[in-house]
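This part of the workshop introduces the protein records we will be handling. A record pairs a protein's sequence with a compact description of its fold. Comparing a sequence with its tokens is the quickest way to learn the format. The record below serves as our worked example for the rest of this section:
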Amino acid sequence: MEWPDHLDAETGTFTYYGDHRTPGKRLHETPRKGNVLLRDAFASSHGSANERAREVPPFLLFEKAAPGRAVRFRGLLAPGGPTLAPDDELSAIWRTTGTQRFQNYRSRFTVLYQALIPRTWIRHVLAGGNPLEGECPEVWRSWVESRVYRPLLAPATTIVRSAAQQLPMTAPDRPCWLRSGSTSAGTKQTSRPALSLSGG
């Protein structure tokens, strides 16, 4: 719960926390060297196109789809974002467990506009091939060569109220000032239709 990795599907921004999640070691001293990878990838992402091609690996985002090992592919990630300052892309934040303080990375990626990733390209990259060859997705090429982000945007659909929610309010639900009744002097107020505030 302290490290809420989160995908904002509307903006295409993915927030990921590094793997230094318990106290006792330094920021980059993690078993799988995940924080070293984040540090180096985000630093190289601001370098030349050659540095991005050589030193920034393609990141693939998956999420659990069901109990067990089933996962769902959510996108191809590039470090940073078109509206983020460098300090917002990767920052070391402090947390406390018991009385011990420690740091971990909070990183932000952009989900690129690419629905499918060719398996041949993944094999090509894993074999040490040039990542801009072997069926390289065009969005990845654009990011590597020019640091142009083409995010996968998914704006929320309009929520339409149900038929029951669109009907006029019943008498008990109407505000008291809309109901017919007696005046303070005891004379009967003229009855007139109640206003409908349902909208539409």
Summary: DSSP finds six helices and six strands in the chain. The two ends are 40 Å apart (CA to CA). The beta strands are 6-8, 13-17, 59-64, 71-79, 90-97, 100-111.
